[in-house]
Amino acid sequence: MNTVNFVSIPASMFPDQEILVFGEKRLTYGQLYDRICRLASVFNQLGLKQRDVVAVMDTNSDLYVTAYYASAKAGLTFLPLNYRAKDPELEYMVNTAGAKALLVGPRYYEQIRRVRPKLATVSIVLAMGEATSDFPSVERLLADASPQEADAEVEDEDISVLMYTSGTTSLPKGVMLRFQDFTAYVTANVEMADGSDRGAALVCVPFYHIAGMVAMMTNIWTGRRIVLMPQFEARTWLALVERERITHAFVVPTMMKQLLDEPNFSKTDFSSLTNLAYGGAPMPLPVIRRAIEAFPKHVGFVNAYGQTETTSSLTVLGPEDHRLEGTPEEIERKLRRLNSIGRPLPDVEVKIIDENGNPLPPGQVGEICIRTPRIMKGYFGREDDAALPDGFRATRDLGWMDEEGYIYFAGRKDDMIIRGGENIAPAEIEVVLTSHPAVEEAAVIGVPSIEWGQTVYAFVVPRPGKSVSPKELDAFCRARLASFKCPENYEIVDALSKNPLGKILRNELRARVSAGSA
Q: Taking the chain, what is the end-to-end CA distance rounded to the nearest angstrom?
């Protein structure tokens, strides 16, 4: 199935239903599909052939959505570029992908002019804003184009999206996601539009991230009006929830905290909001507890864990697990489960394995391995060293499973600390530290030690208006952890190093310790 059908089928049945809002622009299915057909025609007129790569460098917009579906209609591979990429990263992604065309937003014109001589395969550059002397305008080309009627005949195995991972520890890897990967996920998780009001989804996660790309597809297919933000900004997010009567939204942990800290939070009307999902990085327990207390009771929270390589979510911790109600024992159990990433979705199998590949029983920490029909085709131009027998794939995430099938994240495999021969998962210590009433966030790393191999080093961010000492933290940990797991050093900091989606940059924290030692 060609993913352009996510638009074309509803457009054929409900052409006048509003489906996309961006600033002052409000598009119906029919209007959106007309623009898609015109841009597909433009791509053909410019000489692009099926399976050629079209890259986009911009923040979220209605034209970005149009560009993806036009690429799908024309049978092209779509490359959403991280707009925070520096010149060498941008050159690497475009050149390794062999992109033939590049659509660029106004704020990135100068960067593209600077690197264009090094973009060996790019022959077409189009402006997503006003035309320039060197970049023709997409909008002008759309206005002059005749809609292309026929869809390209794509194979299920054809690559729909080539999505580069963040590359926080090495050069980014190009994840090849097929048409069948997206259709398998979307059609299994939402019902097709039927013309009824399915609510409104606020999308603020960038389209170069798998959560943003999947939000674009699932909401359009199910008939839920998408309200796009070019980039997240807490005050604007709150205003849009109220003005557009948002029912569904997804945020990463750093966004959630910014929303709670925004002065306008207490003035916002959340009466329409029913589903608030979060993911992209581990959510600090104090932040989600604060969110549960601050948002109205009717808001259902969902924690989603997944990977780019698996076309979005693998496990989900649902609304019922976030409702801290019931007997004291039930509330205590739910509080423990807030540290989990939930249970696998119906099309996902999960097992926890040891270093020799043997399955581990409940309660033991090992590597999380998954099997699902929507695992990527592979990495572009390199081997997938995480592939396992029988269709399973190693995630390089550590975790453990309880007796009821809930999975608990224990950190990245590369972040495992080995102290005196004992394996220590940073997440286990971080959970204890963030349970301290004066602690907002914590990050734990291993640092070299002549005597022990590695020792445990903790960075701690106090809650606003609170203070805490290393001595107090040490006593707190020793009362709750085995002695070999307790940090030898505590550093009180104002903030943790993170990427834009909220993942802790442990390499930067290690470099900070190394620089201090030197």
A: 57
Asked whether the beta carbons of 93 and 164 are under 8 A apart, the reply is yes
Distance between CA atoms of residues 514 and 420, nearest Å: 20
pLDDT of residue 166: 65
Considering the entire predicted model, what is its pTM? 0.85
**What is the dihedral angle through the alpha carbons of 20, 165, 307, 417, rounded to the nearest 10 degrees?**
-140
Instruction: Kindly list the averaged pLDDT for each block of 10 residues, start to end, along the chain of length 518.
Output: 97 98 98 98 97 98 98 98 91 96 97 97 97 96 93 96 74 92 94 97 96 97 98 97 98 92 97 96 85 97 94 95 90 88 95 93 94 93 85 91 92 84 84 92 91 92 94 95 92 89 85 77
Q: Measured in whole angstroms, how far is the alpha carbon of residue 153 from the centre of its chain?
A: 30
The conformational region for residue 342 under phi > 0 = left, psi -120 to 50 = alpha, else beta, is: left
Name the DSSP class of 267: G
CATH number for the domain formed by residue range(s) 416-517: 3.30.300.30
At residue 291, φ and ψ (nearest 5 deg) are: -65, -45
- Superfamily classification of domain 1-15+24-181: ANL, N-terminal domain (3.40.50.12780)
Helix (H) or strand (E) holding 304: strand 300-307
Per DSSP, 356 falls in state T
515 CB burial (10 A radius; 0-12, 13-18, 19+): exposed
Question: Domain 348-412 carries which CATH code?
Answer: 2.30.38.10
Distance CA 384, CA 217 (A): 26
Residue with tokens 């971080």: 430
Predicted local distance difference test score (pLDDT) of residue 210: 94
DSSP 387: B
CA angle 341, 343, 345 (to 5 degrees): 115
- Domain boundaries defined on the chain: 1-15+24-181, 348-412, 416-517
| Rounded Cα distance, 104 and 81, in Å | 10
With contact defined as beta carbons under 8 Å apart, do 303 and 277 qualify? yes
133: number of Cβ within 10 Å = 5
Pairing relationship of beta strands 422-424 and 417-419 according to DSSP bridges: antiparallel
- Say what the pLDDT of residue 150 is: 92
